[in-house]
Amino acid sequence: MIDWNDKVKRLLKSELMKRGISNAELAMMFREIGIEETKASIDSKISRGSFSAGFFLQCLSIIRCNKIEIEEYENNFLMVAESNVEYKKTTNGK
Q1: Sign of the CA dihedral 79, 83, 69, 49?
Q2: How far is C-alpha 59 from the chain's CA centre?
Q3: Are the C-beta atoms of 33 and 62 separated by less than 8 Å?
Q4: Largest CB tally within 10 Å, which of 16, 55, 66, 78?
Q5: CA distances from 18 to 4, 15, 76 (A)
Q6: CA distance 27 to 6
Q7: Would you state the CATH architecture of domain 4-66?
Q8: Where are the domains of the chain?
Q9: Residue 30, C-beta contacts closer than 8 angstroms, at least 6 positions apart
């Protein structure tokens, strides 16, 4: 059985690490956009892994993460948050 809270926690930590952003820096970035988060509150949320989808999306937005890949090793499949397929728009609606 997949522990989704652990998975999202590891995903967020990975994206922060890729960008060299600490939880203290993330808290400062939150304050810059008018959201009160402390390093301690961020530490707590991330360590639990049970934060809201809203908090997760705020973090990704603040650190300018526009694409994430979610690998599922147990089942050997790959889910991607954004499609790699480009769709062509037509002018006649088809």
Answers
A1: negative
A2: 6
A3: yes
A4: 16
A5: 21, 5, 23
A6: 21
A7: Orthogonal Bundle (1.10)
A8: 4-66
A9: 36, 37, 42, 58, 62
- DSSP, collapsed to helix, strand or coil, labels residue 69 as strand
Q: Which residues of 14-30 are buried (b: 16+ CB within 10 A; e: fewer)?
A: ebbeeeebebebbbebb
What pTM was estimated for this model as a whole? 0.71
- Tens-binned pLDDT, residue by residue, of the chain (94 aa): 888 899 899 999 999 999 999 999 999 999 999 999 999 999 999 999 889 999 999 999 999 999 887 765 444 444 444 444 455 555 555 5
Cβ within 8 Å of residue 54, ≥6 positions away = none
Strands (E), the chain: 69-72, 77-80
